[in-house]
Amino acid sequence: MLPLGFFSVCLRSTQLERTVDFYKALDFTPTGEDAPGLRVSLEYRSQSLTFMSFLQDNLINFRGAHIYRLKECMDEIGIPVTLFEEFKSEERLMLDDEGNPLPDNECGSFSIEDPDGHEFFFNTHREEREPFEEAVLRPSPAMVGTPFNELNLPNVLYTLVVTDLIESQRFYESLGLIVVRDGDGAWVFPNTDVGDTRFLFRLRKGASKHVAITLVQSAIDPKVLRTLGLEPGNQAGLSWNGHDPDGRMLEIRSLSF
Question: Is 184 exposed, middle or buried (0-12, 13-18, 19+ CB in 10 A)?
């Protein structure tokens, strides 16, 4: 499978202003990439979440990769593609292996779903193609040669709750991703040939599809956490649990795990 694109998390929000205020109280800060009333991106220690009022559901977004070639790969391995759209107005810059122009610079979009219905949206515009190609070729010092169990986990950990870990593992491995089982969950990340476009998210077994967000190594005032409706998950107060205004599961951890 080809590199999937730059990874980002986009979250549905039916109460955008309230949700943004909630995450700001958790030390998230605006990135400046917002459209009032429609989309707001917030950053937490160099990692970001984007909240959108017009989404039908939460999704993982991949940007910048070869849309046409990725779609062909999905067709070959039997993953249904929906919402396929060609961006015909895009300038043709990319060439195939024989030097022929690729249609619309490999720009466009489509969606796929995992076995539980979690959506993955692939979306590439012309200005994203070259930065992504450069990123794929550029090594990631933090990842190269480092065993998985020695990697520092991201401070914002996104978890997809799935009903069948074995079926989910097969699906993600078919996308060319590595799946490492861990108790009642698994870690999902790309192989070592994707330069500095690496990412990490988690699967966790549950009774029904939903998502969860974990903030790791957070030192937020417990009074603030209580005000936001979170409750301590243990007597030591090293973890806090609750939900954000849109009902997503949220966990705050004071220490890495």
Answer: exposed
Q: Which two tokens stand for residue 130?
A: 């070259």
Q: How far is CA 257 from the centre of its chain?
A: 20
**Residue 225 CA: distances (Å) to CA of 22, 30, 54:** 10, 20, 28
Cβ burial of 141 (10 Å; 0-12, 13-18, 19+) is: exposed
Q: If pLDDT is split at 50, 70 and 90, which confidence band does 149 have?
A: low
For residue 171, give both structure tokens: 């699906």
Q: Quote the tokens at residue 208.
A: 């029904």
Residue 170 sits at the vertex; the CA angle it makes with 181 and 125, to the nearest 5 degrees, is 105
Strand, coil or helix: 73: helix
Task: Compute φ and ψ for 147, nearest 5 degrees.
Answer: -60, 145
Instruction: Determine the pLDDT at residue 236.
Output: 60
Residues sharing a CB contact under 8 Å with residue 247, sequence separation 6 or more, in sequence order? none
- Look at 59 and 147; give whichever has higher pLDDT: 59
Please compute Rg for the chain using Cα positions: 19
CA 218 to chain CA mean position, Å:
20
pLDDT surpasses 60 at 147:
no
pLDDT over 70 percentage in the chain: 85
Residue 257: which pLDDT band, with cuts at 50, 70 and 90?
Answer: very low
DSSP codes joined into one string, 20-50: HHHHHHTT-EE-S--BTTTEEEEEETTEEEE
**Kind of pairing between the strands at 231-232 and 210-215:** unpaired
| DSSP codes, 196-247 | T----EEEEE-SS-EEEEEE-S----HHHHHHTT-EESSTT-SEEEEE-TT-
